Each structure stands twice: as C-alpha cells, then as structure tokens.
Amino acid sequence: MATPEQRARKRFAPLGPNRGNQKGLSQLKGIIFDVDGTLCKPQSYMFKQMRCPSPIKSPLLKSQISNHPPSDCREALGIPKSTDILDHIHSLPQPAQDEAQTAVRAIERAAMVEQEPQPGLNELITSTFAPIVTRDFRPPKPDPAGILHIAEAWGLDDGAESLVMVGDSVDDMVAGYKAGAATVLLSSRDNEGLEEHEYTGVAVQRLDELVGMLEEGFEERRR
C-alpha cells in the first residue's frame, strides 16, 4: 500500500454540467461515508455507555468487573480508553461475548432514536446506500478491509482507487488512504488537528460543500 510520499494527490474529473477539460483525469466511481459523526451528528456518549453495559448477568463479566474496580463508568468493564471496545468484546469468552454484544446493540438502538443529520446532508444525498458495512465487519477501521469490501461489491476492478472516503476521524482517514481512496475530512472543533494529517486529502466544514467540489472537479490538497 502507498505511503504519503509514494502516492500522488487524487484528482477526479468534474461531474457538473460544465465539465470542461477532463483529459487525463480519472472518473470518480463512488463515495463512501462514515455514519456517526459524518452523516449524523456525533453521539460520543455511546462509547462511555458501551464501556459499562447494564444490566450485567453473566458471571464472567461480573468477575471481570470485580477484578478491575472502576474509577468511573468508562472503566466499568476494565477497558481503558486506549483499548478498542470491539476488540475487547471479541476477546471475551462465551457467554460473556454474546451478552456484551447484546448490550452494545441496545445502546445503539436507543441512540438511533436521537440521531440528527449533519448540516448539508439533505442537499447532498439523493439515493440510498448499499452496501452498508456495520461494526460487525472484521477487521474494523483503520484497516482498509471494509472499504475494499465495498469496492468489490460495486464491481470495481481497481480496488478503491476511484473512490472517495468521507469521515470525521483519524481511523476514517487512515482506512481510506490505505485502501487507495481519496479522503475527505468533515472538520469540527473536535478534530481540527486532523485537517493537516498526512492521510487527509481535503477538509470540508459541511457535507454539501462536496457538491460543488465534485461538480467542479475533485482535487486533494498538496501534502
């Protein structure tokens, strides 16, 4: 896979009615979006809840909690912030793993009721999404496997080279870049430092900024 020094910045031909000169420019074949924090406003409180799923019935989970006295709710399962929640869950023995998965799904279902679209989403989206890669897909981001899976499902013969990955986290940028896609960061106060990250191709403040960018011809910034 390419490193920042090896890969040239991505450029795609304009998609608008006045397409102008497209000579030598690649054709964009698709856009992949992260959901939480990108299509919808962030719901980061979910991750705190996921670190302390309740009620806890499994003796295995109760035993693990008793061996790791929590300093606050985030530590209730003995999962430090530096440890990925899903990696931890997949490392649990049964039946603790199934119970933890059930708790996480319940938290996500409750959060879906309160989801709010990001500004500009309605202006950007005119069709449905398929395929949808959920958190059950392994390995998760920042591994590029999920993006490459989508490219394969779309029947692309160049992997993700003709795609754009839009997200709000470093994992989104790393996964997109390593898959070979162009990357777009939805910038916010929480991730401003990522605008100059080596794997960030370009940053936008609103999703509908992508419309003009794609119509006029997509071009990543110079690294």
Quick tags:
223 residues; four-stranded parallel sheet; alpha/beta; 32% helix
Explain what the structure shows.
The protein is α/β, with parallel strands linked by helices. The chain has helices at residues 45-50, 59-67, 85-91, 96-113, 121-124, 145-153, 170-179, 209-216; strands at 30-33, 163-167, 182-186, 202-204. A 4-stranded parallel sheet has the order 1-2-3-4, with helices on one face. It is globular, with a radius of gyration of 20 Å. The relative contact order is 0.19.
Topology of this structure?
Blueprint: E1 30-33, H1 45-50, H2 59-67, H3 85-91, H4 96-113, H5 121-124, H6 145-153, E2 163-167, H7 170-179, E3 182-186, E4 202-204, H8 209-216
Parallel strand pairs: 1-2, 2-3, 3-4
Q: In percent, how much strand structure appears in the residues?
A: 5-15%
- Note the total helix count: 8
**Which H/E pattern describes the elements?**
EHHHHHHEHEEH
Q: In which range does the helix fraction lie?
A: 25-40%
Strand order of the biggest β-sheet: 1-2-3-4
Oligomer: single chain
Q: Please report the total strand number as a whole number.
A: 4
Average pLDDT number = 81
**Main sheet: strands, sense, barrel:** 4 strands, parallel
Structural class call reads alpha/beta
Which word captures the global form? Answer: globular
- Measured distance between first and last alpha carbons: 17 Å
Low-pLDDT segments:
53-58, 64-76
As a whole number of angstroms, the C-alpha radius of gyration is 20 Å
